[in-house]
Each structure stands twice: as C-alpha cells, then as structure tokens.
Design goal:
By secondary structure, the chain is of the alpha+beta class. The chain has 3 domains: about 130 residues, Substrate Binding Domain Of DNAk, Chain A, domain 1, CATH 2.60.34; about 35 residues, no CATH class; about 160 residues, Aar2, C-terminal domain-like (Serine Threonine Protein Phosphatase 5, Tetratricopeptide repeat, Alpha Horseshoe). Helices cover about 40% and strands about 15% of the residues. It has a 5-stranded mixed beta sheet. A 5-stranded antiparallel beta sheet has the order 3-2-5-6-10, with no helix packed on it. Strands 11-12 form a two-stranded antiparallel sheet. Helix 11 runs parallel beside helix 14.
Length: about 375
C-alpha cells in the first residue's frame, strides 16, 4: 500500500477522536526519503510515493518508526529494516532529513529557522504530504507494548538509538600473516590469516538481560537436592533478572520489547530472547505464587502475542518440536500443582489453557517422549 493512499476515512475513528488527534497528535517528518522505499509506524508498513514527507495525528505515547530505503542505483534492491522507538508527547513535532550518502536518517538536526518554517506549515501546505496515523491498528499496538515504560526503553534501547535488523559488525584488526621457518622464501597465505577479526558493534546492540549469564542458584546451594531444585525451578534466576528493574511488571516490558523488535523490527536475536524469557517465566514455579499479579498480566501479554505471530513463523515453531507447547505445559503444571497459587490466577490460567487447546489443538496432558520412563528388558 502506498503511504499516499491512506485517506482520513480509512482510520475507523469518530469525529471527536479525529479532532483530538488533530489538536493533540504528534508529527514525524522524514524529508527526502527515496521514492519506493518502505516506511512504517508501529504495525503498519507503506511504500513511499512522490508526495510523502511524514506522519501526522500520532497519538501520545510509545511508537516505533521503521524504514528500509531503496537503493538509488538499483531500485530493485532495498536495505534491511532499521527502526527507532520514541515516546511522543502531545503535539510533539520531529523533523529529520534523509542522508543519501549513509542511506540512513541524518544525525544532523535542522537549524531553528528551517525547523520553524516546516512547523508553521504543518496544518497548511504540508498537510497533504503527511499520512495520518493508522488508527485502526492502534489498540493492537497498545496491547503489544503497554508494559514498555520509558524506564524499560532506556534500559533496553541500543546506545545508538536505532533497532537494526542486520547485526552491525566492526573489525578489530587484521591478524599478522603466519610466519614460515627461516628457510621459507615466502609467507603462507591462508583464509584464517587474511580474514579480519570481527565483533558486534556494541553501540548497536539491544541491551537485553543476558539470561544465560545470570546465576542459576545461590552460592550456598551446594547439596544435590538444592542443585536439582534450582535446575527445575528457575525462580532464583528470575529474581536475579528482576533486580534490573524498578517494578516486577517491567520484565513483561522486556518480553514485549523482544517480541515487537522481532515481529516488526525483524531482529532475529530478539526472537531468541523472547523464547528464552518465555522459558524462564514458565519454569519459575515458586515465582508464580510469589508474583500473582505479574503472572496474571503475563497470561494476557502472552495470549495477545500468540495472536500476532505470523503464520509462517508460527508453523515453524510448531514443527520444530513445538517450543510453545513445551513451555506452556511447564507453566500449566506449575500453576495447577501449586496449592499456594492465587485462585484468580488459576482461573485465568484455566481459561488460557482452554483457549489455546481449542484453537491450536495442542495436548498439554500427553507426556513428552523424552520424559517418558524408559523400559529396559533383561535378557
């Protein structure tokens, strides 16, 4: 869909809401983005036409602007997706220019006079060049991001401020050629000593909680029973992860951040983080009774995310040993077998279990093959 084919009457909002957005909504202008590029806000994606200069009527709150520029020399090639999060204030105006040389948003800001000229014409001559916010997707976006607070965003956002779908690498140095014995008249050239040492550009990394590096059990847990307990119940690790945040629900903000940066931002590492966080939350037995309110919210967050997983990815997850069935089986077992779990939470879990069972035909009662008892026959 062209970004210029979004007339007001496609927004599915009443006149009062439209009036409020016109008076309180924000603006995001991206000047000189090449025609044919892809640009979107939150869950919507468009192809840039000749008139496009940005978005208007952006509701206050968190939004994700994402873009993929077309190659100026080969219009059939389009760059990997890049995006940025921003908490829009009422009536906030952001104006940026496209840097064709770097094929990205310019780091240079407009001078005060130029900015003012654009701002003065937002409701005038520029209005026809601005696409209205796709309000019909707004509630879905809220459902997927409502726990990503400004604090959570500041913790997780890359230092560079941009979410990049392709990992950015930097060269450390070129290794020296392998020296041959003195009798050799030449140096041996190999693939290994011609290749540079590479590492991920640290400023471009999403600052996810490094779950694999968190302690799995307290230092004093040294006997076999403690080791077994903490290998099954990951509450201790979850508590360590929660120390990073001010509020318990902030961990759900990271779960949502990983999900939307994968689904919308197309970051594969975010998918791995999402799965790791689901596994941690579902396998933390004691935490379920310890944080009943957070787990009530978790059920809602997870159920809404399941509805948004693209079909091709969903099929891949299910076919690949069905990770989702595995984590949910652990989750439901931990809830229903724990007498300390709040009744309201158990009822919510029962409804959730019934919904996914009916919709996806998943069986949470069947014991996985790798957990079945092994029968050994004696000759």
């Amino acid at each position: 869909m062209s970004v210029e084919e979004s007339p007001m009457d496609t927004l599915d909002i009443d006149q009062n809401t439209a009036r409020d957005l016109l008076s309180e909504g924000g603006f995001f202008l991206l000047l000189d983005l090449p025609i044919g590029s892809s640009i979107g806000i939150d869950l919507s994606d468009y192809s840039v036409g000749e008139k496009f200069k940005g978005f208007k009527m952006i509701p206050p709150g968190l939004h994700f602007i994402h873009y993929s520029a077309v190659n100026s020399k080969n219009r059939n090639e389009i760059a990997p997706r890049t995006g940025l999060f921003h908490f829009f204030q009422p009536k906030e105006v952001i104006i940026r220019k496209w840097d064709g040389g770097n094929e990205d948003i310019s780091s240079e800001l407009l001078d005060a006079d130029e900015f003012q000229r654009y701002q003065d014409n937002l409701i005038g001559s520029l209005d026809q060049h601005l696409a209205p916010y796709p309000f019909r997707e707004y509630q879905r976006w809220i459902n997927l991001t409502n726990y990503i607070s400004l604090t959570v965003l500041e913790i997780l956002n890359p230092i560079c401020g941009k979410i990049k779908s392709v990992t950015e690498m930097i060269s450390l140095r070129y290794p020296e050629d392998v020296q041959q014995p003195e009798t050799s008249t030449s140096k041996r050239l190999t693939v290994d000593n011609l290749m540079p040492y590479m590492k991920v550009e640290p400023n471009s990394q999403i600052q996810f909680t490094q779950l694999s590096k968190l302690p799995k059990l307290p230092r004093e847990a040294i006997n076999p029973s403690d080791l077994t307990k903490h290998s099954i119940d990951q509450t201790y690790t979850l508590d360590e992860a929660l120390k990073r945040y001010q509020h318990t629900n902030d961990i759900l903000g990271e779960l949502q951040f990983s999900f939307v940066t994968f689904i919308v931002g197309q970051v594969n590492d975010s998918f791995e983080q999402w799965k790791a966080m689901l596994k941690l939350l579902c396998a933390s037995d004691q935490a379920i009774s310890k944080y009943p309110s957070m787990y009530l919210n978790f059920i809602r967050v997870f159920s809404l995310q399941l509805k948004e997983v693209p079909e091709d990815i969903f099929v891949d997850i299910v076919d690949n040993e069905n990770f989702l069935v595995s984590v949910l089986r652990d989750f439901f077992f931990n809830i229903f077998s724990n007498e300390m779990v709040d009744r309201k939470l158990k009822e919510a879990a029962e409804r959730f279990k019934r919904q996914v069972t009916e919709k996806y035909k998943w069986d949470f009662e069947e014991e996985p093959e790798d957990e079945c008892p092994v029968i050994v026959t004696m000759d």
